[in-house]
Amino acid sequence: MTTILVTGGTGTLGRLVTERLRGDGHEVRVLSRHAQPYAVDLRKGGPGLDAAMAGVDTVVHCATSTNGGDEEAAGQLIAAARKAGVRHLVYISIVGVDRVPLGYYKAKLAVERMVEESGLKWTVLRATQFHDLVVKVLGALAKVPVVLIPSGVPDQPVEVAEVADRLAELAVAAPAGRVADMGGPEVRSFDSLARAYFKAAGRRRLVVNVPLWGKAYRSFRSGGHLAPEHAVGKGTFEEYLGRRVGGARGV
């Protein structure tokens, strides 16, 4: 079986990718800042990264940070992968990184280009936002009685487990370059997602739509982060809420 290194393997997505691959009999190494025996800060690289990479056939790069450092981490990872003779680098990106002028999206796009120019065989999958992220944002907004929602912004959340299944599938297949985007089953207004969340959580909140400004907001409003032509996800937001939120009301 293949030896696979999953970066960010303790995170929301990476943990599920690891479970899928191990379930199929592959040897999987989990790399993160705190996971032994491969506890490595990717931004710094070093001997620990080289040790984690030794004998690896495929790398699935799930590690990321909204606080910056993705490009530095990718540079260290690619250099170590080339040195170790890795045969396949798989990267998870976000739908719209080339259309939405948001700092984090720009970093993800830059990493895509680094992967493409790495000299390694590669696969890149872009997915829409996970249900988990939508709930995390709404949970933070719900700390006050009146919830302000960006006016006119749609979203297309996807089930993270389905993205993990797809990444695991790609990891054991031949390098495929940029594959088709993966979007959730429905394009919804953020307002409707908010109301569904508050209902499931048993929270009474006044939802107010407010217009914002700037290029990033206009890009989100125009659907630059959506993939309606690739609505291949099956799990709906309400189904996710029923599993994750409905049983923990008031939490």
UniProtKB/TrEMBL annotation:
<feature type="domain" description="NAD(P)-binding">
    <location>
        <begin position="8"/>
        <end position="132"/>
    </location>
</feature>
<dbReference type="InterPro" id="IPR036291">
    <property type="entry name" value="NAD(P)-bd_dom_sf"/>
</dbReference>
<protein>
    <submittedName>
        <fullName>SDR family oxidoreductase</fullName>
    </submittedName>
</protein>
<dbReference type="InterPro" id="IPR016040">
    <property type="entry name" value="NAD(P)-bd_dom"/>
</dbReference>
<dbReference type="InterPro" id="IPR051604">
    <property type="entry name" value="Ergot_Alk_Oxidoreductase"/>
</dbReference>
<dbReference type="Pfam" id="PF13460">
    <property type="entry name" value="NAD_binding_10"/>
</dbReference>
